[in-house]
Specification:
Elements lengths: L1 H21 L12 E3 L4 E2 L2 E2 L3 E4 L7 E3 L4 E8 L6 E7 L4 E6 L1 E4 L1 H14 L4 E3 L7 E2 L4 E5 L9 E8 L4 E3 L16 E13 L2 E11 L1 E3 L2 E3 L4 E3 L3 E8 L13 E6 L2 E7 L2 E3 L6 H4 L2 H4 L5 E4 L13 E2 L12 E9 L5 E10 L13 E3 L5 E5 L2 E5 L8 E3 L1 E3 L10 E2 L4 E3 L10 E6 L10 E6 L5 E5 L1 E3 L3 E6 L3 E7 L5 E4 L3 E3 L4 E9 L5 E8 L2 E3 L2 E3 L4 E4 L13 E9 L4 E8 L1
Parallel strand pairs: 19-27
Antiparallel strand pairs: 1-4, 2-3, 4-13, 5-12, 6-7, 6-10, 6-11, 7-8, 8-13, 9-12, 14-23, 15-16, 15-20, 17-18, 20-24, 21-22, 21-26, 22-25, 26-27, 28-31, 29-30, 30-35, 32-34, 33-40, 34-40, 35-39, 36-37, 36-40, 38-39, 41-43, 42-43, 43-47, 44-45, 44-48, 46-47, 48-49
Length: 572
């Protein structure tokens, strides 16, 4: 009865939302309403919290309020959402978010400019009161862009609850529906077996099966083997009409011998739950995959409310020789479904894991310090998702990192296959030459084996400390190469009517950490786009545009390792 009442309640909520959705305004004008990313996709350490709307590679498309309301938050940042607006809609009791914008409407721009100058900070967050920037349905509130951590011009759009903590799948709820008649693609099936060693659950891929298209459906060309303690992982991706993008999927369902044993849907989530993506996906494969790699099981650290259906947490097991009939369905948020059915046969499958002398058993929820060689790591009660083997090992190999000096041998800090829920504190003892102390940092190897800047603080040349949420191989490096600044030709954005001067800014390793612009000696805001590697100065937004004659420009750029470059010149 309780389940029936819950289902009726959810149906009524869905019907009410569908009626409201019909009266909402599409958030951007002048596009084909195609998407480049879907809600709930697995990203690096987070779920994608909205939908990305394509703008045909152009900036400056008008962004409009989806309903009556008022702007409650304005953000300008070089990373993340870049230039973003948050609008609260009292009638909906919802908040809409518009991110990666090029510019805001004049009144908001003037407020942002004044706040930037007051703080002398390019990065600002403003919380207007509910009367300062009121908007009506369909009002232009800004223009689409490519600011922040954006890899191409688009609008990132979200719908949140009144608190701003829960985000919703607007496609599934019927607010916006891209043209999509394409079923998800099923690519591979993995069998994961689990064993318990010293109270630690150890997992391994024991079988891999390619999934083949067959007569409009999918099949596996041989019998699937399963053991006495394990689960399945499916590799899949989605497509939509008229695009070449790859998307995440909305629903995964599994039935065993005709009974539904697993179902998860990407309807909504809170930002506190976003890092659970590392457990929803199969973490050891996620970095290198160009698709979704989804567990059909509930790991111990995941709350049950994230799943619609669970029987034995989704585990599928069998005695040797026992047959099970398995059916897996994958659905996108427009209702297109792909399915595969196969026979699973019990086999003698075992995890092959030998505990190393350096392995420490660290329980989730406890504080623990472990050491190895020159490295000490402190884990707190929130560092791990679940109890795990943790070790620190020096690696007897030489490392070369392009354009920087390597100052140590690499260390493996925990396992790269083990996701971290929270931060660990790394303390690395070393002897850094005095002339390099300002330029020292830790670098971490990615899944390609390439070392990238991780950060860190050097203390007196004898220790480097770093808070990190990623395990793997680390090494100490020194970056002594300063960034470069190159002025580009000035241009005008024909859609938004903004005149701008661009400067190409490049760094060899540690990235741009600080940047500052002065016009005729006065501090003035400037926008940094890290993906495009450009600084953008827009004189139309500042008081300097009223001054006649050329403007003396001074730029100061500093990278993550303390190397500074200054550029001086004149702009017309």
């Amino acid at each position: 009865m309780r389940t029936l009442l819950c289902s009726i309640f959810l149906l009524l909520v869905s019907m009410i939302w569908s009626v409201r959705a019909e009266s909402l305004c599409y958030p951007i004008r002048g596009t084909k309403q195609l998407h480049s990313a879907s809600f709930g996709e697995l990203r690096e350490n987070h779920f994608h919290s909205g939908v990305d709307i394509k703008t045909e590679g152009e900036e400056g498309r008008p962004i409009v309020a989806i309903a009556d309301g008022y702007i409650v938050r304005v953000v300008v940042s070089p990373g993340g959402y870049g230039r973003a607006l948050y609008v609260y809609h009292p009638q909906l009791k919802k908040m809409s978010v518009y991110a990666h914008l090029l510019a805001f409407v004049d009144a908001v721009e003037q407020r942002v400019f004044a706040e930037q100058c007051r703080r002398q900070s390019n990065r600002v967050t403003i919380f207007p009161n509910n009367t300062e920037f009121r908007v009506r349905r369909g009002d232009v509130i800004g223009w689409s862009g490519n600011s922040g951590s954006s890899f191409g011009a688009h609008l990132h759009f979200e719908l949140r609850d009144a608190s701003g903590e829960r985000v919703y799948n607007v496609v599934r709820q019927g607010f916006m529906r891209p043209a999509d008649s394409v079923r998800p693609q099923l690519l591979r099936l993995y069998r994961i077996e689990v064993d318990t060693i010293d109270r630690v659950a150890v997992e391994q891929i024991v079988r891999l099966y390619d999934i083949c298209r067959h007569r409009g459906g999918y099949t596996i060309g041989k019998e699937v083997e399963i053991g006495k303690n394990g689960y399945f992982v499916i590799e899949c991706r989605d497509r939509q009409n008229g695009t070449i993008n790859r998307y995440g999927v909305y629903r995964t369902t599994m039935r065993v011998d005709g009974r539904k044993v697993f179902e998860r849907c990407a309807d909504s989530f809170t930002f506190a739950e976003s890092r659970y993506c590392n457990l929803i996906g199969y973490y050891p494969l996620m970095s290198a995959a160009n698709c979704e790699v989804l567990r059909l099981v509930r790991p111990n650290a995941l709350p049950q409310h994230l799943f619609k259906t669970l029987v034995d947490d989704g585990r599928v097991v069998a005695d040797v020789g026992q047959k099970r009939r398995v059916a897996i369905e994958v659905e996108d948020d427009c209702g297109n479904v792909s399915k595969i059915e196969f026979t699973a046969c019990g086999a003698n499958l075992r995890v092959k894991y030998k505990k190393r002398p350096t392995d420490y058993v660290v329980r989730a929820g406890e504080n623990r310090t472990i050491s190895g060689g020159n490295v000490t790591v402190t884990l707190n009660e929130k560092s791990l998702y679940d109890t795990a083997f943790c070790s620190i090992e020096p690696l007897n190999e030489s490392v070369e990192v392009e354009s920087v000096e390597v100052l140590s041998s690499p260390y493996r800090i925990l396992s790269a296959d083990e996701p971290l829920r929270g931060y660990m504190n790394i303390m690395w003892r070393c002897n850094v030459p005095p002339h390099l102390m300002r330029n020292v940092a830790l670098a971490r190897s990615n899944y390609r084996g390439e070392y990238r800047y991780a950060g860190g603080i050097c203390w007196g040349g004898s220790m480097i400390t770093l808070q990190s949420r990623t395990a793997g191989e680390y090494v100490v490096v020194a970056d002594t190469v300063a960034p470069t600044i190159k002025p580009l030709k000035w241009s005008r954005n024909r859609l938004a009517g903004l005149r701008e001067f661009r400067f190409e800014v490049k760094d060899n390793f540690s990235g741009i950490k600080r940047y500052e612009c002065r016009i005729n000696g006065c501090w003035t805001p400037i926008e940094y786009r890290p993906i495009e590697r450009v600084l953008i100065y827009r004189p139309d937004k500042t008081s300097q545009q009223q001054q006649s004659g050329n403007k003396a420009v001074e730029l100061r750029v500093e990278d993550g390792c303390g190397n500074i470059t200054r550029w001086q010149g004149e702009l017309p």
